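Re: [ENG-882] Designed sequences occasionally contain unexpected residues at chain ends

Forwarding the minimal case from QA. Structure tokens:
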């Protein structure tokens, strides 16, 4: 790990040439000719690095990229290394430690150039009596590249100080000298923040799983519309990235919002005017049929490291043909999805949907439950979904089909959606038991569902590759080994299910759920 750097700002009254001359009065420096660099700040589209309090700088120098990951507002370096190409995902950082730390911050989001600078950089090296370098200074005169323009915005001149190990005394002396009266000032703002201010960039507070603090007595129609509007905005923010396939997380967030939207529309027919939403619901289903297969393929493609870990050395190389086949499948389906989601039909869907959410309808023109308190209406749905889980789960045994467990998984997911969205409507102690138990069951059902889906998909792709004559015996053998592995993992998930289900359905839990409803009122159950 290199020594930390220090960032200072040159006063407006002190020109870079004067600063250099001032330094030379008392010290011996070796100078490099000024060089022009392109400096790039990388971050995710939702600025996860910036929000975590860090900065990722990239400089193209001598045919490679110098990467510096440091803390925002300071020169404290988190990591620094050279790379042959710009990294796009955490997985592209070869060093395991850096890869894991980066993944903790950005997840599976892609990195993209957010801000570019043209940098006139002048390097100075402080020399001792034997002409050995003791520290380095860089005077950086950066110009912010204005997107879609030939113009630049000049940043304040920053001076970076790089102490060398073993020369602490020299560092302290030069630090006193350059920060003396009329000299350098500690940077008031991080250079990245300065560039963001110049470009008027204000990162929005983005969350693909927004938290809601709804008034329990609020009318159900208004409370549900607030939730649905948040999901509409998430879909809008991610649609372009999903269509362009820049990052699989765009499609992931898009689908999360779309599926929660459909769940709420289908579960509340006694709140929403059914006739007004009939075509909108159909169009949401139409859009999802194009997006869901690509999300599945994204998941399969991300699993290849795991697949490799489940195979012996002799079969790992045989995974490549399957990977390439799935990648080709994704490219074909991506084109189909993009055509659909950039179509007039999709644009009309979202225009109509926004118009519906913005429109304030009179309660007398809406179904009866629209004016009832959101706590009461949501509580009924939570209790309904809980009872559905009890009914479906009690019918399961070791001989039950995979389809029966998948059906339970779908209902459990809908209960999870409701608890995630509406838990704040209920006393924390009363709802916490249910939230914890549902999450425990959901983890088990998610595991089974994903493994079962992978098992069936591997069989399907094996058959398709045979039909297209894209196989060799060792490839088929490798896929058979993966199918067997998925079967084995499915059996393990089944064995864990009874204990997880019991935790959710014990007598105390059933009593807690019943107490969520103070007034059942008129019951109007939804579907889906």
């Amino acid at each position: 790990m290199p020594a930390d750097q220090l960032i200072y700002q040159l006063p407006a009254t002190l020109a870079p040439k004067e600063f250099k001359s001032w330094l030379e009065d008392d010290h011996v420096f070796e100078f490099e000719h000024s060089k022009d660099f392109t400096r790039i700040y990388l971050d995710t589209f939702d600025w996860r690095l910036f929000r975590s309090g860090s900065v990722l700088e990239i400089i193209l120098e001598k045919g490679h990229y110098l990467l510096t990951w440091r803390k925002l507002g300071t020169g404290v370096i988190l990591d620094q290394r050279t790379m042959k190409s710009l990294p796009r995902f955490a997985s592209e950082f070869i060093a395991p430690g850096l890869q894991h730390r980066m993944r903790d911050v950005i997840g599976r989001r892609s990195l993209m150039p957010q801000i570019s600078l043209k940098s006139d950089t002048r390097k100075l090296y402080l020399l001792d009596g034997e002409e050995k370098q003791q520290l380095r200074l860089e005077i950086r005169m950066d110009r912010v590249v204005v997107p879609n323009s030939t113009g630049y915005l000049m940043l304040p001149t920053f001076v970076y100080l790089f102490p060398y190990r073993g020369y602490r005394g020299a560092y302290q002396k030069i630090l006193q000298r350059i920060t003396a009266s009329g000299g350098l000032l500690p940077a008031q703002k991080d250079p990245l923040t300065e560039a963001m201010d110049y470009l008027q960039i204000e990162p929005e507070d983005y969350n693909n799983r927004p938290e809601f603090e709804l008034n329990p007595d609020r009318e159900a129609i208004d409370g549900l519309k607030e939730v649905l509007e948040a999901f509409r905005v998430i879909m809008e923010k991610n649609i372009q990235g999903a269509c362009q396939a820049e990052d699989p997380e765009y499609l992931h967030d898009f689908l999360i919002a779309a599926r929660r939207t459909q769940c709420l529309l289908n579960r509340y027919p006694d709140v929403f005017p059914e006739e007004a939403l009939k075509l909108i619901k159909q169009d949401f289903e139409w859009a999802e049929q194009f997006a869901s297969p690509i999300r599945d393929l994204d998941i399969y493609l991300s699993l290849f490291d795991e697949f490799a870990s489940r195979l012996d050395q002799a079969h790992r190389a045989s995974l490549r043909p399957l990977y390439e086949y799935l990648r080709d499948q994704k490219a074909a389906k991506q084109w189909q999805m993009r055509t659909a989601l950039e179509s007039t039909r999709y644009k009309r869907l979202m225009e109509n949907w926004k118009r519906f959410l913005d429109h304030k309808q009179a309660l007398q023109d809406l179904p009866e439950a629209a004016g009832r308190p959101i706590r009461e209406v949501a509580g009924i749905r939570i209790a309904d979904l809980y009872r559905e889980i009890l009914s479906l789960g009690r019918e399961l045994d070791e001989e039950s089909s995979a389809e029966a467990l998948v059906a339970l998984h779908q209902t459990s997911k809908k209960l999870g959606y409701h608890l995630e969205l509406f838990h704040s409507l209920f006393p924390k102690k009363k709802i916490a038991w249910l939230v914890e138990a549902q999450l425990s069951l959901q983890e088990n059902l998610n595991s089974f569902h994903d493994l079962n889906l992978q098992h069936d998909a591997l069989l399907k792709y094996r058959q398709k590759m045979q039909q297209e004559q894209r196989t060799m015996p060792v490839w088929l053998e490798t896929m058979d080994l993966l199918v067997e592995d998925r079967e084995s993992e499915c059996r393990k998930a089944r064995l864990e299910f009874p204990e997880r289900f019991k935790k959710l359905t014990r007598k105390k839990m059933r009593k807690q759920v019943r107490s969520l409803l103070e007034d059942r009122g008129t019951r109007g159950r939804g579907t889906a």
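QA comment: On inspection the terminal residues look reasonable. Residues 6-198 form a domain with the Hypothetical Protein Pfu-838710-001 fold (CATH 2.40.320.10). Proposing we downgrade this to a documentation issue.
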